[in-house]
Design a protein that fits this description.
23% helix, endopeptidase fold (from Nostoc punctiforme), six-stranded antiparallel β-sheet, hydrolase, transferase, two-stranded antiparallel sheet, lipid metabolism, H-rev107_PLA/AT
């Protein structure tokens, strides 16, 4: 089964979600066909495979600005996936200024707490969060629990997860 996203034209500051093998990869649209995103240390840019990223033992990632077509890969699979229903975005100029300041830097990386989705939501909203990390790291209090709790921008969301 292959997921191909339908996509509208992105605007500066939009969150972009890219389908990958096990997870989705995230970037922030910078305008003029460019996106800012995280890539593993020691690996070139372009299409980052999330399965590779999640298995990287490094606790850091490169912040890269690259062409959207290179990050999206063949078929230009991506979708604009803003989360403005959860929290209003910062002003676009503030988002762009913060994003530009991050380009070329190395940032902390951890799939459960500092992944590419955290990175771009922090740029857009001022607070990082990742719904997909909860699916693989449910509530730490009980390893047999079928309930995961995620606090997103001061809103508690309880997800009931199916366990095999």
């Amino acid at each position: 089964f292959r997921c191909v996203f339908q996509f509208p034209e992105p605007h500066r500051g939009d969150l972009l979600e890219f389908p990958r093998d096990r997870f989705t990869h995230w970037g922030l649209y910078m305008g003029d066909g460019y996106v800012i995103h995280l890539a593993p240390i020691g690996r070139g840019g372009g299409r980052v495979l999330s399965g590779y990223f999640s298995s990287v033992t490094s606790s850091h990632a490169n912040v890269l600005k690259e062409l959207l077509k290179d990050v999206a890969g063949p078929g230009l699979d991506y979708r604009v996936q803003n989360k403005d229903q959860i929290h209003p975005p910062l002003p676009v100029d503030a988002i762009m200024q913060e994003a530009e300041a991050k380009i070329g830097t190395v940032v902390g990386y951890s799939f459960p707490s500092r992944n590419c989705e955290h990175f771009v939501t922090e740029l857009r909203y001022g607070r990082g969060f990742s719904a997909q990390s909860l699916l693989f790291y449910p509530s730490p209090h009980d390893e047999h629990s079928s309930v995961g709790v995620l606090t997103v921008l001061d809103i508690r969301i309880v997800l009931h997860l199916c366990k095999a």
